[in-house]
Design goal:
Layout: H1 2-22, H2 29-43, E1 52-53, E2 80-86, H3 90-101, E3 107-110, H4 119-122, H5 134-137, H6 141-144, H7 155-168, E4 181-187, E5 192-197, E6 202-210, E7 220-221, E8 232-235, H8 241-244, E9 259-263, H9 267-279, E10 282-287, E11 293-294, H10 303-307, H11 313-325, H12 338-358, H13 364-389, H14 393-398, E12 411-412, E13 425-429, E14 437-438, E15 442-445, E16 448-451, E17 454-457, H15 467-471, E18 475-476, H16 483-486, E19 505-507, H17 519-539, E20 545-547, H18 549-562, H19 567-571, H20 599-612, E21 618-620
Parallel strand pairs: 2-3, 2-6, 4-18, 6-19, 8-17, 9-10, 9-17, 10-13, 11-12
Antiparallel strand pairs: 1-7, 4-5, 5-6, 14-15, 15-16, 20-21
Helix pairs in contact: 1-13, 3-17, 12-13, 17-20
């Protein structure tokens, strides 16, 4: 007990010193942290991720594709391709582009949607837009000689850019759209993968790249009575414009006489709620936890600025942004937006000022304390913004987020908070409990029934469930072992991209790699790395690539060693998909099993490995 008490005293002294370096604080850090923890505790549930319903059986209508004409048919395929890429989002598009550039022409895309675009094919809800600057986010801008229309792109432009990438690299010619995989099995005799689909296909592929996407399978809340509601209902990733009218830009004219309810106030809810509030007769927003709403300040692209850009500008901008949002420092902030402002003030600027005052570098503990205090200041600004915009003080109070900045994905929006000044909009704050029950007529929350004509689920996508469940099928590797068996006690990969026992099968996105705010940047680094591996093997006349068991073991140990640093931070966070809904001891949150070095160092690790040239850790034959 004495030892623990001493540790607390040291921490308090350190916090006081850091507070002095930051200048006068207009808040009590200890009281604020207690407030954060009490708000977290109100929201912790025993069921964690089990509170959500898997969209199968009677819920399957929530994942049907509303954007294609019914009745599509084609003849099944029984052919062979060199490269099969599963998924037509940015991961699949980048993988295809880099493979084509490496000289692989026989590339087939397999995608369950009716077109390319991935999450931007599905997310067509009104107001959908990207919250990462378009000049960094939209991939292959220089390759396609394209300049986005705005600093932050709206969904229709992103979807069209995805299609243009597919056209540029001739990916439509050999694509299997509206096609879902049912089985994927390694055939030892041919050294190829057999891919079976719901279209009756039984094709073979030498190499398979899994680009399914990290947030691809919609989820529903497991609220009592969810099947009892008799009004109209849909998920935001399958927006029903036949019912609402309008399009991704708004104009939801069919809602003028409708009472609409929406569950979910994350990034999707924040973007579509202003349009619902503008057009619905009545809008009820059911909130469990408010989002952090910072300034977006979007604007059209300056054509004069665009003409000044020199070749290589996009990579330079992406690297600059990635360094800043990963806690590093740059002489110039090329993007200068809400993301870089957050991280410069949490790590870069604040640490520099404090170091100058101390006349030395900060210790690791001092830097952590400084970051926490800077975080408190930033979130006080976010809460103050709600006070300044929302007219009713009681509603403004309910819209204040009481948690650290990165406990949830920060949101940036210039119209969301104003929506609650509308007379037809009602915020139903459930104090962290969520909706009590769904009835035939509407919802019960806080003991009161709200009758609705339409119920919309803005409840996001599955996180923390198994990889094979989110993919919708299992993968059977060498010797009949399934991927679900191989990963039954956690992900097992080499470099996050391939696993022992699954030759020529590669994974993109966040399977033991490093996460970054700008997801396409990470996908591009992975695609370049895999194109290098496969291309080099082919040049040597080698056609089978597999992680060695030893390399996989060593890499998993490295992941476990480096990935633990953020566990305390997320344990203190309010529940959400970042921390597996706050379940203590559960390691299935969004950031679990990521490489703890961070994206800048991780990309350098891959670059240095390529430079060695010996393909160490891979078995080639």
């Amino acid at each position: 007990m004495c030892s623990e008490s001493g540790k607390t005293g040291d921490t308090d002294m350190q916090a006081a010193n850091m507070a002095e370096l930051l200048g006068d604080l207009d808040f009590d850090p200890v009281a604020l942290k207690e407030k954060y923890l009490s708000e977290r505790d109100k929201r912790i549930r025993d069921d964690g991720n089990q509170q959500y319903v898997e969209i199968t059986a009677e819920f399957s209508r929530y994942i049907d594709d509303p954007y294609v004409d019914p009745g599509f048919t084609r003849d099944p395929l029984f052919d062979e391709v060199e490269v099969a890429i599963i998924g037509g989002g940015f991961g699949g598009l980048l993988m295809a582009a880099r493979m084509k550039e490496a000289g692989f022409d026989d590339v087939r895309m397999i995608e369950k949607a009716g077109d390319f675009g991935g999450t931007w094919y599905w997310n067509r809800y009104p107001g959908a837009m990207c919250d990462v600057e378009s000049y960094c986010y939209l991939p292959l801008l220089e390759e396609l000689n394209y300049m986005p229309k705005n600093k932050y792109s709206f969904a229709p432009e992103i979807l069209e850019h995805s299609k243009n990438i597919a056209r540029h690299y001739c990916l439509y010619e050999n694509a299997c759209l509206q096609t879902s995989i049912t089985n994927m099995t390694w055939e030892q005799s041919s050294q190829k993968w057999i891919i079976e689909t719901d279209r009756g296909d039984k094709m073979r592929a030498r190499y398979v790249a899994m680009a399914n996407g990290p947030l691809s399978r919609p989820k529903l809340p497991g609220i009592k009575g969810i099947n009892d509601y008799e009004g109209h209902t849909f998920h935001t990733s399958r927006w029903d414009y036949n019912y609402t009218g309008g399009n991704s830009y708004g104009n939801l004219t069919n809602l003028k006489d409708k009472r609409v309810g929406i569950i979910g106030t994350g990034a999707t809810g924040v973007q579509c709620i202003p349009h619902l509030g503008e057009w619905a007769k009545e809008l009820y927003v059911f909130q469990r936890t408010p989002s952090s709403i910072d300034v977006r300040n979007n604007g059209e692209t300056d054509p004069n600025w665009a003409t000044t850009l020199k070749p290589g500008w996009q990579k330079e901008r992406m690297d600059n942004f990635n360094t800043l949002v990963s806690g590093g420092d740059q002489e110039v902030d090329l993007v200068a937006d809400g993301w870089t402002d957050i991280m410069r003030n949490l790590t870069g600027i604040a640490a520099k000022i404090a170091s100058r005052k101390l006349g030395r570098k900060l210790t690791k503990g001092e830097r952590a304390e400084l970051m926490e205090l800077s975080d408190y200041k930033k979130m006080n600004f976010v809460r103050k913004r709600a006070e300044e915009i929302v007219n009713d003080p009681s509603i403004a109070e309910k819209l204040k987020p009481w948690y650290r900045q990165f406990c949830k994905r920060p949101c940036f929006h210039d119209e969301y908070l104003d929506t609650y000044n509308r007379d037809n909009v009602t915020l139903v704050d459930t104090q962290g409990k969520g909706v009590d029950e769904i009835t035939s007529k509407g919802l019960i929350a806080n003991g009161k029934e709200f009758e609705l004509d339409c119920l919309i689920f803005a409840t996001g996508f599955e996180v923390g469930t198994s990889y094979t469940r989110r993919a919708g099928y299992d993968i059977v590797g060498r010797g009949g072992q399934s991927l679900s068996e191989h990963w039954s006690e956690g992900l097992r990969t080499f470099q996050g991209l391939t696993s022992h026992g699954f030759p020529n099968c590669f994974f993109l996105v966040f399977t033991q790699t490093a996460i970054t705010v700008n997801v396409p940047h990470a996908l591009n680094e992975q695609a370049k790395h895999l194109a290098h591996i496969i291309g080099n093997a082919k040049k040597q006349g080698l056609h089978t690539i597999e992680a060695s068991a030893i390399a996989e073991d060593e890499y998993v140990a490295e992941i476990h060693k480096t990935a633990s640093s953020g566990s305390r931070f997320y344990a203190e966070c309010t529940p959400g998909y970042y921390n597996s809904e706050g379940q203590r001891g559960n390691t299935a949150g969004f950031f679990s099993n990521m490489h703890g070095a961070g994206p800048v160092k991780f990309f350098k690790i891959l670059e240095d490995w390529r430079a060695q040239g010996d393909m160490q850790g891979l078995e080639l034959s």
